[in-house]
Design brief:
Pfam families: FUN14. This is FUN14-domain-containing protein. It is found in: Membrane. Belongs to the FUN14 family. The structure is a single chain. The protein is mainly alpha-helical. Helices cover about 75% and strands about 0% of the residues. It has seven helices and no strands. Helix 3 runs antiparallel to helix 4 and helix 4 (about 90-110) packs antiparallel against helix 7. The relative contact order is 0.12.
Amino acid sequence: MSTATLLLPGLRRSLLLTTPILLSTPLLLSHQLSTTRIRCDAPDPLAKITSDLRLKQSSAPVLSPRVVKQISLGSVLGVLGGLGVSVFSKPLAVIIGLGVVFVQFLESRGIHIVPYSYLQNRLKKTNVRSLVQNNVALKMSFGLTFALAAFAEF
């Protein structure tokens, strides 16, 4: 005897029990569906999105002339410095560039890894805190292009 003949009576029995239930489901649910009406009185979903966009547009522009100047100056200085260092050592150029970006990223998140007091004692006439925390766009573009210049071949 094969296993198919042993399973066949069970399959027939289960089909005989489930077929009427499956066939009567649409009839049973039709009464349920006919009593619930679809209402289309919700607020317009695009109204909130467009109003939020109008509010964001009315604020100060993200790319002010000062930021664009910092980005362009940082990019030019980063390429020149990166090419100069990559002549001697390409890994050093990548490490310096990504180090600048990493320190700036941590500073923007509120994690201070630069020892301000120690450096301030060593460099009396320089404001070390403003060197690290100001002109973020300049330093980020400088660091990224410094690291990318290591991959340039000329």
